[in-house]
Specification:
The protein is an alpha/beta fold and about 325 residues long. The chain has 2 domains: about 160 residues, Rossmann fold (3-Layer(aba) Sandwich), CATH 3.40.50; about 160 residues, 3-Layer(aba) Sandwich (Rossmann fold), CATH 3.40.50. It is about 35% helix and about 15% strand. It has 11 helices and 9 strands. Strands 7-6-5-8-9 form a 5-stranded parallel β-sheet, covered by helices on one side. Strands 2-1-3-4 form a 4-stranded parallel β-sheet, with helices on both faces. α3 packs across α10, α6 crosses α7 and α6 crosses α10.
Length: about 325
């Protein structure tokens, strides 16, 4: 096993051995959970733990994914979905509010529109007598590390049932690649795979940010930028679609972008490789035709289920429960 982690804040903190370990645990968890005896056993592993879901940015998939991940392990949960219902409305700082919550729980999972908030809270709690692990469930435009984990897991599962590799694969990331934190976090992990290539496909106004471009250059990740989606489709092993991130607009600028050129239509299935896959972090708008859903290469619904199990494995790994998961069942 690789060294354990305490907080989960950024995708660049994971190395390839960590990914391998995590995905091995994910597969074993899924295997155990198939029987009632196994599912009941998993619920005993962390029945003495409590988690706070601090989700002050709108969320359905990530919130429910983490809540169910906690329930699978027997963790009791509490939640804050709206800061207007907390003492922050009385002028309390978010730092004081979350430090208060840390008095009651053993794990805090955070999703916030404020970039860098999870890092600040982790640093704050590290300096207190009660150090509680933080999982970043999405912060502003900067990071979504657990989405990147489930995306890599989905890629590997899709390229081979036993964990096919991403080495030598071409991954097309399409749409609003400038402001999409899922694109940023997944791109950071691509440095772990040999000869993997990224194709960033977007309008000129939504190209990747300079800091990500420099990061990939420094890490030796081969990448290409283009505005021509149809030219990339036949070359890609995976198409990672994204919606336009207009919640980050400052003056409604997204309304002036022709996003229709970055929609995956039913006709595009004809030029997509037979063994390629289509992904999307969801929610979607019009960027994937609903007729595509029935194609076996469409993996975005499976991607969602993979997310729940990857998060179960992540929490279990953070609390060093590897042997408790595997040894009693001999898997």
């Amino acid at each position: 096993m690789t060294a354990e982690i305490y907080h989960v804040l950024r995708s660049d903190q994971f190395d390839r051995p960590f990914l391998n370990d995590l995905f091995d645990i994910t597969n074993k968890l899924r295997q155990i959970s198939r029987t009632k005896r196994g599912a009941d056993y998993l619920q005993t592993l962390m029945s003495n733990k409590r988690a706070m879901l601090y989700f002050t940015q709108p969320s359905t998939r990530t919130f429910l994914s983490f809540m169910n991940a906690c329930q699978i392990l027997g963790i009791k949960t509490s939640e804050i979905r709206d800061p207007h219902t907390s003492s922050e409305m009385k002028g309390e700082t978010v730092e004081d509010a979350i430090r208060t919550f840390s008095s009651y729980v053993d794990l805090i999972i955070m999703r916030s529109p404020r970039a860098g908030l999870a890092d600040r809270i982790a640093n704050l709690l590290d300096e207190t007598p009660r150090r509680v692990p933080i999982i970043n469930g999405g912060s502003g435009r900067d990071e979504h590390p657990t989405q990147a984990l489930l995306d890599i897991y989905t890629l590997r599962r899709s390229f081979g049932k036993t964990g096919g590799d991403i080495d030598n694969k071409k991954i097309a990331m399409v749409g609003d690649v400038q402001r999409g934190r899922t694109v940023r976090s997944l791109s950071h992990l691509m440095r772990h795979f040999e000869n993997a290539q990224i194709y960033f496909v977007s309008p000129d106004s939504l190209k990747i940010a300079d800091d990500l471009r420099e990061y990939l250059k420094n890490e030796g990740v081969e990448f290409h930028e283009t505005t021509n989606f149809e030219e990339v489709i036949p070359e890609a092993d995976a198409i990672y679609m994204t919606r336009i991130q207009d919640e980050h607009d400052t003056a409604g600028e997204s309304k002036h972008i022709d996003y229709s050129k970055y929609h995956f239509t039913h006709d595009h299935l004809k030029i997509l490789k037979k063994d390629a896959i289509i992904m999307h972090p969801l929610p979607r708008r019009q960027e994937i035709d609903v007729k595509v859903d029935a194609d076996p290469r469409a993996k975005y619904w499976r991607q969602e289920r993979n997310g729940m199990w990857t998060r179960v494995a992540l929490i279990a790994k953070m609390f060093n429960l590897h042997k408790d998961i595997t040894e009693p069942y001999g898997v």
